[in-house]
Design a protein that fits this description.
Number of strands: 0
Shape: flat
Radius of gyration: 24 Å
Mean pLDDT: 79
Low-confidence stretches: none
Largest sheet: none
Keywords: Membrane, Transmembrane, Transmembrane helix
Order of helices and strands: HHHH
Distance between the termini: 71 Å
Structural class: mainly alpha
Number of helices: 4
Number of domains: 2
Protein name: Lipopolysaccharide biosynthesis protein
Helix content: over 70%
Strand content: under 5%
Length: 136
């Protein structure tokens, strides 16, 4: 009975020593997300208190569109780089990274031009408060 417990205890020690690095990495990921979300929450609370409702609403719309485009960029550029760069293109990482960077610049320019066009439309046709936000 005691030998059974000791052998299982040894297996548990191996399991915990292997899983410790995953717990540490997961802890850093959670901490990073907490800081990002917390800072975003505090900034939004402060802006909601300082800005008039119309201007804060325009900010919220512009920020939502920015996050939507950021998600598109992440799905198209960042995630494939992390997945394929570490595995499939490990031997030719520099070449793959160069191709991904060209893709990044193309997508970024397209998004910037799109936001500029939207800002000009808002500014010239509607004179909406969002125009200033889209222009930066």
């Amino acid at each position: 009975m005691i030998s059974f417990i000791l052998s299982n205890l040894k297996d548990w020690k191996v399991f915990f020593s292997r899983s410790r690095s995953w717990v540490v990495k997961g802890g850093w990921a959670i901490t990073d997300q907490a800081f990002f979300s917390g800072a975003n929450f505090v900034v939004n609370i402060l802006l909601a208190r300082w800005l008039p409702p119309k201007e804060y609403g325009a900010f919220a719309v512009a920020l939502s569109i920015f996050y939507l485009l950021l998600g598109f960029h992440t799905a198209l550029i960042t995630e494939p780089l992390m997945v394929f760069g570490a595995g499939k293109y490990r031997s030719e990482f520099c070449k793959y990274f160069g191709i991904v960077m060209w893709g990044h610049w193309i997508v970024s320019v397209l998004i910037s031009v799109g936001l500029g066009v939207v800002a000009l439309i808002f500014f010239t046709l509607i004179r909406h408060i969002c125009a200033k936000l889209y222009l930066g």
